[in-house]
Amino acid sequence: MSDNTIENLMSEQRTFDPSREMEQKILDQANLTAEKYEQACRMATDSPEEFWADRARDLLHWTRDFRTTLESDPEKHEYKWFSGGRLNASYNCLDRHLENGRRNKAALIWQGEPEEEVRVFTYHMLHRKVCRFANVLKKIGVSKGDRVAIYLPMVPELVISMLACARIGAVHSVIFAGFSAVSLQNRIIDCDAKILIAADGVLRGGKKIPLKRNVDEALFECPSVEQVIMVKRTGDEIDFIEGRDTWWHEEISGPDIEDYCKPESMRSADPLFILHTSGSTGKAKGVVHSTGGYMTATAHTTQWVFDLRDDDVHWCTADIGWITGHSYTVYGPLALGATTLLFEGVPTYPRPDRYWEIINRYGVNIFYTTPTALRALRREGTQWTEKYDLSTLRILGSVGEPINPEVWIWFHEHVGKGKLPLLDTWWQTETGSILISPLPYVGKLKPGSTGKPLPGISAKIVNSDGSDAEANEGGHLLITEPWPGMLTDIHNDRARYNRTYFERFPGSYETGDGARVDEDGDYWIMGRLDDVINVSGHRLGTTEIESALIAHPDVTEAAVVGIPHEIKGQTVYAYVTLRSGLDEDDEMRTVLREWVSQKIGPIAVPETIQFSEGLPKTRSGKIMRRILRRIAVGENDLGDTTTLSDASVIADLIEGQKELFE
Ligand code: WT7
């Protein structure tokens, strides 16, 4: 064991230098050596456009080279990367690997939830499937620019659908299979999808969860959807709607479906996909990503941050329903011609060794996961990590929420055996790819810090008035220069795009996160500054949950805050006012939880529901969530309460909280 013991890491300096631990061979063969890193930083600072142009040309196959690296109209917050260039994302992830020696290499390894269910696709096999499914889409009338909604669990058909859309220039919109019928419907309506690809159900924790009911309910009011293609997963009996629903396995094996489909030549700025994410108002935002910029950014970060090498098995555990899965299960690793692993199940079923067993079984090299999973696994004890030889691992990563230093150290010690680089990567759905992260063999790692902005990324911390924050002073995290992976729009809502990201701090992109930078220039993310809660790494808007609660006929008012939770990071705490005369009891709580689950999905269900007669509001009627957050955690000091319109509600709220936790 190295001298990087827990005591050492937890001591004053709390740093760790992986380059001292790694074999020289690994350092020498790195995609980004320490020396190359210095060069990259210089180039990215001196001539950023040249830097990005080089990356775009090195990493991707362009059927027509681009004329301009960045065409920007700052007034309109319009940033077009690689204008004049043409490419196809599916070609870049598949076809070119058929000719460069990777044809028979595993592109995708799928581990189903049942241990014995495994499917492996070589590049040749995946290419063929994608082509055939692209031909199915064409046959049923999908063409370039059309939107296709995908509501699938973690099965290979999800990856195939995405790449098939990309192949013909259709815009995919993946909707997390844990979302309810209402959320599914909202997202389909928002992107005006023509086709829906869904499954009969999901296997999760040894249970079958039906999905088709949600599909039928959602489509009740989605006139744009012409056809539903159903993947058979659980095999449960489902209602089939004649003329609308067809089976995937029948469509793809149709005698008129050919094995090859010509990739559509796309402009760099053409949208590759839409992905919805929660914001601080009720409606989810349809974040739009471009083809050329996004593909450059994901391939670039996969190569430099994860140091992905040709014979690596890359495993990102995130669901593809979130951006992490888009960028680091599908597009990044496949663009680089690596082997990507897709796991259908959960980390603790049937035993809490599932992750370690899979790493061992497939010889995983890069393992990218979430603090929430790690917290749950840490609680199970170290006997599970000790049971397996994890020596193929070379790089560990974490994403989605702040990772507590204790959990960081546990991951580093028990999975990385005290030796491996552990990268706490910061980014967002909107940023498309990692922006702030340590690099595996460059500089020191500090548990709890996300390191520095990557070469080519400019960030800073400012106070509310826009002035620069001092070292270690918390403030708003801004990105001050455009980057290729940035969102290009919010679907159908340009005004919201402008307002959310560019108007408050002119000239910069506003992340919505609070952060500080220490004296070494390392970033420490402090969490959201807006009304967004992060439950198990999933973003939920407080307003979204409040709207759902208020939509219940028995509820007159609701306010929702996030409170710290040992495993999930944060959980939902709801204050609810009922119509008078109704019983404020557990039965009602169950009804409301079930209601939220149906309106949004199980992840949004309030862990705690406190009934209250009134809520603290400003004179203009704005709910003061700051006070509610403090009451929810039993804090005595409520801060400034002078702006309250009616301070008398406070005592009742405090009383109510105490009763709940007695
Ligand atoms: C929000 C973005 C990026 C993919 C997963 C989430 C939080 C993300 C970190 C990190 C602390 C983090 C931020 C951010 N976040 N990574 N390493 N440390 N917080 O994507 O759903 O768009 O959420 O997740 O608050 O704004 P997302």
Query: Which secondary-structure class do the elements indicate?
Result: alpha/beta
- State the separation between the terminal residues, measured CA to CA: 46 Å
Ligands, deduplicated: 5'-O-[(S)-butoxy(hydroxy)phosphoryl]adenosine
SS summary, helix count: 22
* Strand adjacency order, main sheet: 12-11-8-6-7-14-15-23
Could you describe the largest sheet, including whether it forms a barrel? 8 strands, mixed
Write out the CATH superfamily name of the largest domain. ANL, N-terminal domain
Tally of structural domains: 2
What would you note in describing this structure?
This protein has an 8-stranded mixed beta sheet, with helices on both faces. It has a 7-stranded mixed beta sheet with strand order 5-4-17-16-18-19-20, with helices on both faces. It has 2 domains: 513 residues, Rossmann fold, CATH 3.40.50.12780; 125 residues, ANL, C-terminal domain (GMP Synthetase, Chain A, domain 3), CATH 3.30.300. It contains 22 helices and 30 strands. α20 links the parallel β29 and β30. With 662 residues, the chain is an alpha/beta fold. The longest helix has 17 residues. The relative contact order is 0.10. The chain starts with 5 loop residues before the first helix and ends with a helix. The structure holds 5'-O-[(S)-butoxy(hydroxy)phosphoryl]adenosine.
